[in-house]
Amino acid sequence: MRVTHGMLVDTLLRNLSRNLSRMERVHEQITSAKRVNRPSDDPVGAATILRLQSASAQIEQYVQNVEQARSWLDLTDQALTTIGNALQRARELVVQAANDTLSAPDRNAIWQELTALQQQIANTGNFAHAGQYLFAGQRTQTEPFDLTTDPPTYQGDSGSLERMIDAGVTLPINVTGDVAILPVLQAVKAARDAVALGNAAAIQASLSQLDSAHSQLLAAQAEVGARVNRLDAQRDRLLDAHTSTLRLLSEAHDTDMAEAITRFAKEELTYRAALQAGAKAIQPTLADYLR
Questions:
Q1: In what residue span(s) does the Flagellin N-terminal domain sit (predicted)?
Q2: CA dihedral defined by 149, 150, 155, 160, rounded to 10 degrees?
Q3: The CATH fold of domain 51-248
Q4: Residue 145, SS3?
Q5: 0.85 cut: is pTM over it?
Q6: H helices within the chain, ranges in order?
Q7: Could you give the CA distance from residue 140 to residue 42 in angstroms, rounded to a whole number?
Q8: Cα 9 to chain centroid, rounded
Q9: How far apart are CA 81 and CA 75, in angstroms?
Q10: How far apart are CA 111 and CA 192, in angstroms?
């Protein structure tokens, strides 16, 4: 078969085009800093990258859930601490009221302070975070305690609010007001009534009720603390996993700059050499195109 000038030109152009495409691909890897910019660059690598990106996004969502749960529990603990301080003050007042030497005005002053403490506890129990009531159970849009009743009545439910902190792993984040706060309100109300009557036996009985409510409150706080510790440990584990996932993703996705620059220089040298060789080998004339 006779090799024509046109065939030589076509072959040269095809080879130059392939070489230029390789140069372009390496240049894109350098400028984008990504080894794989489209699935055709490396089908197996692209699948690995997608899997690692999905894993990274999932871990980030779990970390966000942990942070939200931690914020909720921190606020819960602060509220319970405030209620606990009010309860301690109520107990101090009741102990004072048990003194037979107190005058009626003194007992009335104690009753008034107990009333104010009851109101403070109920208000704290109605604390909301981001438009959701902390102590209402699953009825987060309903104010937990009705302040128009004496003592305030609980309007929430006993439902648990949970956050997913890992694949298939959930953690309850709430404490319901009927368990932790309502007994406190009832105990303070009983103490107020006993002080109002000046009944020494009833006042002593109310001390026991206050102590029982305090025990329930402390148990709720201990549970909150245990959940916070678990969240902290989970967050550390997730962050470690995220770091490892990002490292693997970088290895699979990011360009090895030193290697890419070396390849680009090699491809560029090859391309220039091909151009020079082609220019020498092919010197077309009008007669060559007419053949």
A1: 9-140
A2: 160
A3: f41 fragment of flagellin, N-terminal domain (1.20.1330)
A4: strand
A5: no
A6: 5-32, 43-97, 104-125, 177-180, 182-197, 200-253, 257-281, 286-290
A7: 50
A8: 62
A9: 10
A10: 6
